[in-house]
Predict the 3D structure of the following.
Amino acid sequence: MRAGVLNDLTKCIGCGACAAACKQINNLPRGKASQLEADTWTYVDYRHNTFIRRMCMHCLEPTCASVCPVGALRKTETGAITYDASRCIGCRYCVMACPFDIPKYQWDRALPITQKCVLCYEKRLKQGEEPACTAVCPTGATLFGDRDALIREAERRIRENPEQYVPHIYGLREAGGTSVLYLSPVPFEELGFKTGVRDEAYPELTWGVLSKTPFIVSFGAAVLFGLSWVINRRIQLAALTSVEAVADAEVAAESESGEGGEPQ
Ligand code: SF4
Ligand code: SF4
Ligand code: SF4
């Protein structure tokens, strides 16, 4: 099955249960957000009397993964685009390359990485469960299922209720197609969707091409690889040092108590 999510904006009541479920399952700090952030992987926007849940589109040909020089972002067998935080070097190529402006950078952290929705791949999809956000939606406004089946369902809804929907499934072809799809009662451009995104994928934006073109990119990557190694090494050393320090302190304490135990 190629996983998909159908967000039908005519059914969304703006309750925010999806956003809360995402925060909970991913241990993200609580709080209402009005945009995607490193700690907010989905939220509910409101424009033209319409609630709009924003999230990663999970592109069929993800530009974010193709430009990542260390393979931190990858497309899984389900179609979910995941990232491995331990590999991320914080270069932000994915942030710049994403046609939907999805990945967000941890500007406030000492060792920042980028973050985004991972379609609950590790925590739910691999166990055969649907994403936490779609599971809690009380109205079926966000549906999980096979992408092809969701497309057929979306076409049926438009065909049977043409007065309720604009005749377009957003994500069917944008950027080569996405696993997350939208139906809307209002033209997508009025709801802040990127309608200038072309239908073909963005194959020229790959790390292989980027690394061969401007010298500065490959030079920058080499520097970032080096920095990443140094940072990781320092973290490992700090952890090792603190473990050793604790062990030394325990030995010293034992030895002191042993020495002081016998009165002279
Ligand atoms: S929407 Fe952006 S971050 Fe999400 S898979 Fe597509 S390119 Fe990657
Ligand atoms: S699929 Fe999972 S990670 Fe993505 S928005 Fe929903 S709950 Fe969050
Ligand atoms: S849980 Fe469903 S109805 Fe509630 S805000 Fe999210 S998508 Fe809309």
Observations:
- Residues 56-59, 62-64, 81, 98, 100, 102-103, 116 surround iron/sulfur cluster (ligand 1) (CB under 6 Å).
